[in-house]
Design goal:
By secondary structure, the chain is mainly α. The protein is about 80% helix and about 0% strand.
């Protein structure tokens, strides 16, 4: 009986420690991400990096104690997005989704990052086409579609994620991404 009681007490203590660690991560995440965004606007990169380091430490502890939990990766990914480290942000969301494929927060974050990546790549390809054209490249008009299989994969994954999330913002993003410029009205109303 005594050993059973001690075991239960130890389990309760371990569970309480996990809950406290999760609370610490959530509080630190909200505080650090908001601070990092403000510091980025002020151009204080060193202080922004300090906020990211604080969140990294807490999330690393959570991952060590609860390796199957996706939430720390979502939070780290959001911080990376705030730092404008978009590839690293996308990696974190992919790690979160590997652990919990249906996690709506991670799907929404990944979709936003894929949209950004798609349009950045598309813009880079259009700029390269214009430079080539300026130096005597062929073709009279700019191609309508510079999308390749990789970009098509990003687009399809983002649209699938937006469909899974299903909120008004995701719906507007999906419509805009599919070429429906009337979706801009949602963003104007939301602003």
């Amino acid at each position: 009986w005594f050993f059973t009681a001690r075991l239960r007490a130890a389990q309760r203590d371990a569970e309480a420690a996990r809950r406290n660690l999760l609370d610490e991560m959530r509080t630190t995440s909200a505080t650090c991400r908001d601070a990092a965004l403000q510091l980025r606007r002020m151009g204080n990169v060193a202080a922004m990096e300090e906020q990211a380091r604080r969140l990294d430490e807490v999330c690393t502890k959570v991952i060590a104690v609860m390796p199957g939990l996706a939430e720390p990766h979502v939070r780290l990914g959001r911080m990376r997005r705030a730092q404008m480290q978009f590839e690293r942000a996308l990696e974190q969301q992919e790690m979160a989704l590997a652990k919990e494929p249906g996690l709506v927060e991670a799907r929404k974050e990944r979709a936003r990052l894929l949209v950004r990546k798609y349009f950045a790549e598309n813009g880079a390809r259009r700029a390269a086409w214009r430079r080539a054209r300026a130096f005597g490249g062929s073709g009279d008009s700019e191609p309508d579609n510079l999308e390749d299989d990789e970009m098509r994969g990003w687009r399809e994954k983002a649209l699938g994620d937006f469909a899974t999330v299903g909120d008004a913002e995701s719906s507007a993003y999906a419509r805009l991404f599919a070429g429906d410029l009337s979706a801009l009205a949602w963003f104007e109303r939301a602003a």
